[in-house]
Amino acid sequence: MLKILYFAGLRERLGQGSEELELPAGVSDVAALRDLLASRGGAWESLLTLRNLRYAVNQQMARLDSPVQAGDEIAFFPPVTGG
Amino acid sequence: MRISVQEADFDVGAELAALRQGNPQIGAVASFVGLVRDDNDGAGVAEMSLEHYPGMTEKALAEIVEAACRRWAIIDALVIHRVGRLLPSDQIVLVAVAGAHRGEAFAACAFIMDYLKTRAPFWKREVTPAGARWVDARDADDQAAARWREPGAQTD
């Protein structure tokens, strides 16, 4: 299983903050997971169109080519605005 | 090192006293307090809410403070960041650094704050007369963090 988290404006657009997903066949990195989620259409296309979307794998900042495997916690979120 | 992400307000005087208590090697404490302003990007801000990524936010803050400890000879550091609903003039964040001398304390405090702004997962949502909106990240914050980049360091 993968645990997938969405935060802030992205969470609002998608209408959900988290989901669990069986690791889909052929998904081995963040880019492939993002593309698969975006193919759901509608608001999910935000994953491709939002400017400067950020990714984390197991609570560490990640890149599109960062590997993804079963048991990982993957997060998608907009650029951070704390402080 | 103390890292806290909390809804509750904090007492700056008490936090700074606790940071330096019992250590006569400390000759300097530099601190920064961030506050909620009542305007942003030309609109009045009636209130704000701050969201974070429980678990990752605390780790990211600890990593930023550890990076500061490797770079400067500081003695101790403190980061408190609030989440949840905040009103204008409320305190949002406290960064404090204790060292033997002011130079490293000032530098490490600014470094921690600049990295927090660009790397710690917090998101601000403002309530304005036109409705609620998520605050956009600022290029100026990326530039502020970039000034700490060391020659030869990997960029990201």
The CATH homologous superfamily of the domain at 2-35 and 52-118 in chain B is called: Molybdopterin biosynthesis MoaE subunit
SS-derived structural category of chain A: alpha+beta
Most extensive chain interface and residues per partner: A-B, 18 and 29 residues
Rg of chain B, Å, rounded: 16 Å
Element pattern of chain B in H and E: EHEEEEHEEEHEEH
| End-to-end CA span of chain A | 34 Å
Q: What would you call the structural class of chain B?
A: alpha+beta
Strands of chain A, count: 5
Strand content of chain A: 25-35%
Q: How would you state the average pLDDT of chain B, rounded? A: 95
Order the strands across the largest sheet of chain B as they lie in space: 1-6-8-2
User: What is the top-level CATH class of the domain at 2-35 and 52-118 in chain B?
Assistant: Alpha Beta
Low-confidence stretches of chain A: none
CATH architecture of the domain at 2-35 and 52-118 in chain B: Alpha-Beta Complex
| Tally of alpha and pi helices of chain B | 4
Evaluate the radius of gyration of chain A: 12 Å
Largest sheet of chain B: 4 strands, mixed
Shape of chain B: globular
Q: What order do the SSEs of chain A take from the amino end to the carboxyl end, as H and E?
A: EHEHHEEE
Based on CA inertia axes, which overall geometry of chain A fits? globular
Between the first and last Cα atoms of chain B, what is the distance in angstroms? 26 Å
